[in-house]
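Thread: "does anyone have the structure for this chain?"

Original post by V.I.:
We have the sequence but no experimental structure in hand. Need at least a predicted one for the grant figures.
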Amino acid sequence: SFRVAKYSMAIAKKLGFSEEVISDIEIAGYMHDIGKIGILDAVLRKVGKLTDVEYAEMKKHPGLTWRILEPIHLPENIVLAAAQHHERLDGRGYPFGLTAEDIHPFAKIIAVADVFDALTSDRPYRTAMSVEKALIILCEGKDKEFDSEVVLALIDTLKDGLMAQAPKDIYRELKYSDIQSLNQFLSTIAGQLIQPVTEV
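Reply from O.Q.:
Generated one for you, tokens below.
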């Protein structure tokens, strides 16, 4: 959650949000997975693929996050961002099945930060992916799962080196396939990101 908060802040800064808004996004990043305290440890720490029943259990955590945060009177922006971070632009997310226009803008930021962190850090069920592979996956989900403007802002923060200026203990897990050609890769994938979606 600490890394997700920092990634979210970097993206929000690139998108031009005010310091006050960035602070709210940071708090939402810290809080986004608090609902996992209500999920069985056997599900959270499972090494293999989740069964349908286990996945249904895991999908409860954003709703639990909502139930934990809503009564303590945090600003609505923070609560909505934390509770909606698994929604998708195409309406196939959870727990509410919201579509693009109904998803809080902060939640769209945390969604990208959360997936980027999940892909680039070691998990019980797999080792960390390279930054390049993670970004390709995010770009493949543009305008279906992820807001393309938010993904582009993440790429731009990497290009600008903003994340490299953060404390090394936050970003030490990031792996690159080819550090020598990273800038060229980031420029290329950013160019692909802004291409219009073609129907298949």
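V.I.: this helps a lot. Residues 105-120 form the longest helix (16 residues).
O.Q.: and The chain has a mean pLDDT of 87.
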